[in-house]
Specification:
about 350 residues, alpha/beta, 434 Repressor (Amino-terminal Domain), Rossmann fold, 6-stranded parallel β-sheet, 6-stranded mixed β-sheet, 12 strands, elongated
Length: about 350
């Protein structure tokens, strides 16, 4: 709730609307950068003066360091998945002389929309895990070139074609198929999946896993746990549920590596040997997986390649001619099975 009497600060979005230009053009005009005509610059400066727009010191510092700035939106930097991915994006951005601004947006369609709008007004493009409805994605990011990560196909199809958008999605099927086939080849038949439900709804993992198991004549068994403060607790809870079932699993594929570590902890506390009695497979390929005992078998995502794919899409959209068709790019990445001692 806004404080009584508090005036809303005019931002780059309002200047862009009045001047009839993009936010990137406002940034260039306000910071005396090349790439726009004198007439356009004059129109932007007049609009800024009329609105009494004052660029933030933060925004000016970004522009002074680099001709372009990139926003990265993740869910939780305390989660190694997002911190490892952010580290790779930073490497790519620095190598290409872009400034990186990182923001956390916690899960939930109503979370962080105003903060996202503020970020969108400060950067030239963005890469985002954004679990927002299509109308909110369009209203928050507007004409900003945007790469959406792990977004449902139905969301992408509903986005406005008037804005530059790209989607980078992880195709779960190849990696999960590798994991299931690896476990079956080693005599496992009761393979359970740990699934986490978030506010955005059912996990794609559950649907893909169920289809793959049935294709192989195996009964799927999904242990669903609501999102908790940490995925380690999710893994422990899921393992407890699975082990108390009439037919406990002889293998568990966890939602991610962190929940897999929780599964390992619960199994160890119960005296269940891994992998002899129950094999464990994670998903993500986090570095921490080699520092546990037994070392974690996992479906590894190549974070460096994933970050490069996302950045390449940013560059493609940012460099597209203003008069040409808007780019709508879709790319896919996949996991690779890395076999270690836990399976």
């Amino acid at each position: 709730m806004e404080k009584q009497g508090a005036a809303k600060r005019v931002g780059i979005v309002e200047v862009a609307e009045i001047a009839g230009v993009s936010r990137q053009t406002v940034t260039r005009a306000m910071n005396d950068m090349p790439g726009i005509s004198a007439e356009t610059k004059k129109r932007v400066l007049e609009a800024a003066e009329r609105l009494r727009y004052r660029p933030s010191r933060f925004g000016r510092e970004l522009v002074q360091q680099s001709t372009r700035s990139l926003g990265l939106v993740v869910s939780d930097l305390a989660n190694p998945y997002f911190s490892e991915f952010a580290s790779e994006v930073a490497k790519v951005a620095i190598a290409n002389q872009w400034t990186l601004v990182v923001m956390e947006k916690h899960p939930g369609p109503e979370s962080g929309k105003e903060e996202l709008r503020a970020l969108a007004g400060q950067v030239d493009a963005a890469i985002a895990y954004a679990d927002l409805p299509p109308k909110d994605i369009d209203s928050v990011f507007g004409s900003l070139p945007l790469v959406l990560l792990d977004t449902a196909e139905r969301t992408l199809d509903a986005l406005s074609p008037s804005y530059p958008r790209s989607a980078l999605t992880i195709d779960l099927a190849p990696g999960l198929a590798q994991a299931i086939d690896h476990l079956v080849a080693r005599g496992r038949s009761r393979i359970s999946l740990v699934d986490i439900t978030y506010p955005k709804g059912e996990s794609v993992r559950s649907r893909v896993y169920t289809a793959l198991m049935r294709d192989r004549g195996l009964d799927p068994h999904v242990v669903t746990v609501a999102s908790m403060d940490d995925d380690l607790s999710v893994g422990r809870c899921a393992a407890e549920i699975a082990l108390n079932a009439p037919a406990p699993p002889d293998a568990v594929i966890a939602f991610n590596d962190l929940s897999a570590l929780g599964v390992l902890k619960e199994l160890r506390d119960r005296g269940v040997s891994v992998p002899e009695t129950c094999a464990v497979v994670g998903i993500d390929g986090l570095k921490i997986g080699v520092f546990v005992e037994p070392e974690l078998t996992t479906l590894r995502l190549d974070f460096a390649a994933f970050a490069q794919m996302a950045f390449d899409s940013v560059v493609q959209m940012s460099n597209a001619p203003a008069s040409g068709p808007l780019l709508q790019i879709r790319k896919y990445a996949a996991h690779e099975l890395v076999v270690r001692k836990s399976a």
